[in-house]
Design a protein that fits this description.
This protein is mainly α and 162 residues long. It has 5 helices and 3 strands. Helix content is 62%, strand content 11%. Strands 1-3-2 form a 3-stranded antiparallel sheet, covered by helices on one side. Helix 1 packs antiparallel against helix 2, helix 3 runs antiparallel to helix 5 and helix 4 packs across helix 5. The longest helix has 27 residues. It is extended and about 60 Å long.
Length: 162
């Protein structure tokens, strides 16, 4: 019962968005919107049970600055690749990285970090959660990418979320 107020607010907001997007107050849209938003709210209620309990504020602050620096440096590197020779653009590819983190909020944060960094994108996580697949625009040294993901991002996220 503790979850009911947040579930109700979520449902009301979804319903309002539904009506705004459909630009209609027709009875059919109201009924369909109620059915859809209540169904979505109940389906996502299971996800709301998992609460993040981040710790180590100093580690999180340090990680934030590491990510901001990496995003800045990656922007410069991607600009060089785009404006450079065609040969420089031929090094892209997918790679797999073994991953030890299992905390869902840590993995979600890692996905945001990898995707927000220009030149890389999160491509998937193996069903067993042991292997991360990423696409890298400038894939010259796979070991360097493994070390970067594991040392600069995964290790601090594990300190924060696990």
């Amino acid at each position: 019962m503790k979850r009911w107020p947040s579930l109700s607010l979520f449902t009301i907001v979804l319903f309002a968005i539904w009506l705004l997007l459909n630009d209609s107050l027709a009875p059919g849209q109201i009924v369909l919107g109620l059915v859809m938003t209540i169904t979505v709210s109940l389906a996502t209620a299971a996800m709301l049970r998992s609460r993040a309990r981040p710790g180590h504020l100093l580690v999180a602050i340090r990680l934030l600055f590491v990510v901001l620096l990496d995003i800045t440096l990656s922007n410069i590197a991607v600009a060089r690749i785009i404006f450079g020779s065609a040969k420089a653009r031929s090094n892209s590819g997918f790679m797999e990285i073994p991953i030890d983190m299992r905390a869902p909020y840590g993995l979600a944060t890692l996905a945001c970090i990898v995707t927000a960094t220009p030149g890389t994108i999160w491509a998937g996580l193996a069903p067993d959660g042991a292997t991360l697949t990423i696409h890298v625009l400038d894939l010259q040294d796979e070991e360097a990418w493994v070390r970067t993901i594991k040392d600069r991002y995964e290790r601090p996220l594990m300190e924060i979320f696990e």
